[in-house]
Amino acid sequence: MGVGIDPVTMAEALARIEGLLQGGGPGQVITANPEMVMLARQDESLARIFQEAALVVPDGYGLVWASRVLGRPLPERVAGIDLFQSLAALAAQKGYRLFLLGAREGIASQAALTLQERHPELIICGTHHGYFSPDEERQVLDRIREARPHILAVALGAPRQEIWLARHQARLEVPVGIGIGGSLDVLAGQVQRAPRWMQERGLEWLYRLIREPWRYKRMLFIPRFAAAVLLQKYTGRRELS
Ligand code: UDP
Predict the structure, then answer these.
(1) Residues 4-41: pLDDT tens digits?
(2) Pairing of β 151-155 and β 176-179
(3) What pLDDT does residue 240 have?
(4) Spatial separation of the C-alpha atoms in residues 135 and 159, rounded to whole Å
(5) For the chain, which residues make up each domain, given as ranges?
(6) Residues 6+ positions from 54 with CB-CB distance below 8 Å
(7) What is the mean pLDDT of the chain?
(8) Any ligand 1 atom below 6 A from CB of 30
(9) Res. 222: pLDDT tops 80
(10) What digits encode the pLDDT tens for the residues 149-191?
(11) Which atom of ligand 1 is nearest to the CA of 104?
(12) Is the CB of 131 under 6 A from ligand 1?
């Protein structure tokens, strides 16, 4: 569908990120979902960010479904929050410094406490909320540069976090940048994840719709995505014309 997703398992994704950390990067990791794929199909600059990313994993179950329908199956769903938590464990084990950027005031620091409780040896070299103005951005960038993280996890919502990383990561000289969506809210205990049976059946989106009904507008892309996948399967075409 014009957007490349790496056919990796969770373990392979982690190994690729470790390779980036060892090589010094910089590399961007995107945890993609159907909404981002639909956006990238309409927006050339976002499509370029996808192409230039070091690793794009299928966060949304819809991408795994699409890959099966289109005959090039992805091995499994690599949920962004699970990848991020495994990455935190890896960072703790190997001594990589982690910076958390995003979410409402106080959430990133609460998420940092949760991670540090789980991994006492983890070095979180800084946190900052995600509601800074364009004027405040310089200060945020300076804070990150001075903290010298190996991993910069950005939770500004997709695709803003991907665009932000593409613009700033190389100059910040951060080896690995990863967009983590709502993960800080979950780690801080503000948002509950769907029960496991729903996650396993690809129904996490339904759970979110029930808990956060105001998101329904953003979910209208789901039928459009399914239609685009089926159009491509049966006609080989990427666009309706
Ligand atoms: N967020 C932020 N700054 C903004 C907009 C959003 O820090 O200007 C945060 C928001 O508080 C949340 C995260 O971005 O913690 C991701 O939001 P969401 O759950 O909507 O994730 P998405 O589905 O967009 O990836």
Answers:
(1) 999 999 999 999 999 999 998 899 999 999 999 999 99
(2) parallel
(3) 55
(4) 21
(5) 10-235
(6) 16, 20, 25, 27, 28, 29, 176
(7) 94
(8) no
(9) yes
(10) 999 999 999 999 999 999 999 999 999 999 999 999 999 999 9
(11) 11
(12) yes
Nearest Cα neighbor of 41 from 88, 1, 94 is: 1
Q: Give CA angle at 163 (170, 238), nearest 5°.
A: 120
Q: How many CB atoms lie within 10 A of CB 10?
A: 16
210-218 mean pLDDT: 85
- The predicted model scores a pTM of 0.94
**H helix runs in the chain, sequence order:** 10-23, 34-42, 44-52, 61-69, 80-94, 107-118, 137-147, 160-172, 183-187, 196-200, 204-211, 216-219, 221-235
Tell me which residue of 210, 141, 202 sits closest to 177, measured CA to CA. Answer: 141
Q: Please give the distance, rounded to the nearest whole angstrom, from the Cα atom of residue 218 to the centre of ligand 1.
A: 13
